[in-house]
Amino acid sequence: KLFFPPSSVKRTKFLGFLQIAFMTLTLFPIRLFFAAFMMLLAWPFAFIASMGPAEKVLEKPLPWWRKVINVLLKAIMRIMWLAGGFHWINVKGKQALPTEAAILTLAPHSSYFDAIPVTMTMASIVMKAESKDIPIWGTLIKYIRPVFVSRSDQDSRRKTVEEIKRRAQSKGKWPQIMIFPEGTCTNRSCLITFKPGAFIPGVPVQPVILRYPNKLDTITWTWQGPGALKILWLTLCQFHNYVEIEFLPVYVPSDEERKNPSLYARNVRHVMAKALGVSVTDYTFEDCQLALAEGQLRLPSNTCLLEFAKLVRSLGLKPERLEKEIDAYSSSAKRKKGKKVNVREFAEFLEVPVSDTLESMFALFDEKEEGLIDLREYVTAFSVVCRPSQTLQTIQLAFQMYQSESGTLTEEDLACILKTAMGVSDLNVSNLFRAIDDKERGRISYDDLHRFAEAHPDFAEEYLYPDQMETLAPNGFCTDFSPEISEDRNNCLQKKLD
């Protein structure tokens, strides 16, 4: 995460090692003890404020006596952060009143230390329902009256949006709701696509931006790199930890933005990015999952599947909801027996109208620009997007669509499957095919490939792209997610479409 001048790298690392070793033996246990103590001290206040029929009490607007407890809890939480080394919390701007902005949108989201502005404002947040059952912490969470999301309830997302909308339109009767619209942790180098949940109510929001201007970044907690406990340990071993919280002016949506939450979210994101001095990228939380999924076919840097995933969602096809439909798509495509379809037939297959977005997706599979595509390729790509970590399951599905009556397929078929599964236009599978087809029959079955994959778990790196895999950034945010490269990709796609 850090880059030092070459001549000072060794000395800097050595001094950093000495500091961490010294702090681990001296200040770290003291800080950890006091931080835990302050959390325990806050618990009885939150417990008393939450007594009575839990759900009914929590549903009432904030009474005056809870405001007193708010002050006490804010003081206790501030001391807890002080004990953790956050001696200076620089606050810029002024927090709006709930009547002025019912929703606070916070970005960039990069760590669990982003809880600092939550404890300072005692704003409600959106949390998993399971969190309320955590000892001590669950009581503190329930006190701020969060909007709980239940994973077991298939209708939870709709209910969550309705609850946010109900509170946001209560004209200040409910506490403000603080939402992290990115939906995942990034390394703060840019702002990814905002989820529309905070903007669906169509009420004014106050953007809040976070900065951690520390010389050593021990705060960032992303997909790869140090785990939660290591981040805590390294942060508590720093002499000082700085954080800046800036409340930007309230953003009042236009009539067009109220009707279009996605437009509203994009415009607020641009305002926040400008204040932060960073770029924006159109990649989303789901794109991060796809690009960094752990599977036997890691996506190469030149994959077009990220563009494909965006187009899928733009059509209103939710991969997370349509996973159960993959088998039906597969059976329908298999019945075509390789017969290609035009854009109108493709629209009928997806049960969507012909549009610019659909034609853009169609062009991704129409490599020869003949106006026809193979539905089996779409189903294979869609399976990867729905199940990014289960690549062998996707290959098995593709085998079922491509294989002959004997249950085997050729090198050409395997090349088509793997090119589609990895989203590349050119791929040499000859070495892999020969390695699997050790009996030189000229055809292989899925069982042959599966046995080979079990014996060679890294077969993709060894046989398909040994010199092409791009290393992921050490901060866990994929290098090909940078706004510049994203723009280049879009330009390349546009050239293909033109």
From TrEMBL:
GO terms for molecular function: 1-acylglycerophosphocholine O-acyltransferase activity; calcium ion binding; lysophosphatidic acid acyltransferase activity. It is found in: Membrane. Its main location: membrane. One of its GO terms (biological process) is phospholipid biosynthetic process. Residues 353-388 form the EF-hand domain. Pathway: Phospholipid metabolism; Lipid metabolism; phospholipid metabolism. GO terms for cellular component: endoplasmic reticulum; membrane. The chain crosses the membrane at residues 20-47. SUPFAM superfamilies: EF-hand, Glycerol-3-phosphate (1)-acyltransferase. Keywords: Acyltransferase, Lipid biosynthesis, Lipid metabolism, Membrane, Phospholipid biosynthesis, Phospholipid metabolism, Transferase, Transmembrane, Transmembrane helix. Belongs to the 1-acyl-sn-glycerol-3-phosphate acyltransferase family. This is Lysophosphatidylcholine acyltransferase 1. It comes from Varanus komodoensis.
